[in-house]
Amino acid sequence: MQAVKTVKLKLFKPTRVKRQLLFLLQENQQLLNNYIGLIEKHSTTNKSLLHSLSYSRLRSDYKLPSAIVQSARDKAVEAYKSYKAKKRRGEKSSKPCFSDRVPVRLDKRTFSVIETDNRFRYFASIATVEGRVFVPLLGQRYQYKYLARLFKGELQQGTAELLLKGNEFYIYLAVKKELSVPRPDASFTPIGIDLGLNNLLTSVILRDKPSGAKFFSGKPALKMRKHFSTFRTSLGKAKLLWRIKKSKEKESRCMRDINHKASTAIIKQALTVENPVIILERLRGIRRKAKSGKKLNRMLHSWAFAQLQSFIEYKANWNGIPVVYVNPEFTSQRCSVCGYTDKANRKGNSFVCSKCGYQLNADLNAAINIAKQHKNFAFGYMLDALGDVATPLTPAVNKKEHKMVSVVDRGSPCF
Predict the structure, then answer these.
(1) C-alpha span between 167 and 165 (Å, rounded)
(2) Model pLDDT for residues 320-373, shown as the tens digit of each residue
(3) Bridge partners of 341?
(4) pLDDT score of 81 more than 70
(5) pTM for the full predicted model
(6) Angle 18-42/66-88 helices, nearest 10 degrees?
(7) φ/ψ of residue 344, rounded to 5
(8) Residue 198: which of 230, 220, 174, 169 has the closest Cα?
(9) Burial of 117 by CB count in 10 Å (0-12 exposed, 13-18 middle, 19+ buried)?
(10) Who's near 155: CB < 8 A, 6+ residues apart?
């Protein structure tokens, strides 16, 4: 399989070609919305049919390079299919409508990286309506490392996205490498991960008995969310709508940073284990199903669960670690020792089994139950695999021997 990583690069002062890039973004937006209209008009997402129905006309109307027209078609089809899939699942969704800031998808025909001996080592070559433009690429040392590996042949170039953020242009370049992610079997060591609010994530390694528990505190994220919520309330009263938008963007960046740190910590933990397999909760529909108080609902709906899991998944794949998704139902209510399941077992952040009296941190107990579901799998469920609720297990675990080392990472808010 191929593992993919995205490298963010800034275009250095593209003053001379700014007009061409802005025009490219504008034409791309109109083209995407045109394709959405065609998809609805002809009730089809078949790319070949859309090509035969509209390609010649759209090439004439927009004058864009043929590869960008084809990429726009593919992007519109993907967005519309995603919209329809959510509608079928009963999730809230609106028909795709692309804004003027929608990125332009570029492939190898319309984008390439050029290595030079100049002051700026790497240049972007971008196809526009008026021909190719060449702009220096700026990045950090670790980003240049991926570009260097690209020219050494260790990595392959994937698609790129050209986007405008504020007054700056950026390239999001996908780099790929071939690797074999092993199929997890009974010899693999599961690492169960429970996601939550009090602890952003709790992980545990399950060998003969649980060990190496790790907590990543959710308090910095909660504090950050509360800060921005209060801040936006005051901005709303002052009718400063543009500042509300800016604060949402900053909050999103802060949450992304926290999720990157948490996911990196999990991968580092997994790399210390021989034949690891990461077990994640299948959280599809968690927001729709959440029926809590107003305050908790707001936190749930603003929490980046899917982003955190996607970070863990792509970083695991990049390191050749398999990922399995399981049904999390009852994992917080089931005793990880005797298997007894009762809602009364969980008391806040503590878990006390009503049957055997076993006591443990509630999030850690859930992480152990998630890891145990690996044992109940028909092995081979990888990436987006959907597991069923595991049958309660009754392993011979001595309570006194059930000791773990906790590593608490408090993280840090970025405001």
Answers:
(1) 6
(2) 999 999 888 888 899 988 989 999 998 888 999 999 999 999 999 999 999 998
(3) 334
(4) yes
(5) 0.72
(6) 50
(7) -70, -10
(8) 220
(9) exposed
(10) 146, 149, 175, 176, 177
Share of the chain above pLDDT 70, in %: 85
- In three-state secondary structure terms, 181 is coil
Distances (CA, A) of 167 to 185, 260, 307: 50, 26, 26
Please write the tens of the pLDDT for every residue from 99-157. 888 999 999 999 999 999 888 999 999 999 999 999 999 999 989 999 999 999 999 99
Report the alpha-carbon distance of residue 294 to residue 224 in Å, rounded.
Answer: 18
**189-195 and 276-281 beta bridge pairing:** parallel
CA distance 210 to 208: 7
Rounded CA separation 248/222 (Å): 15
Half-sphere exposure of 149 (CA within 13 A, CB side): 16
Sheet holding 189-195, edge to edge: 323-326, 276-281, 189-195, 199-206, 210-217, 407-409
One-letter amino acid for residue 57 of the chain: R
**DSSP 8-state symbol, 203:** E
Strand order in the sheet with 131-138: 104-106, 156-165, 168-178, 2-11, 131-138, 122-128, 111-115
Tokens matching residue 284: 């599809």
Exposed, middle or buried by CB within 10 Å (0-12, 13-18, 19+), for 402? Answer: middle
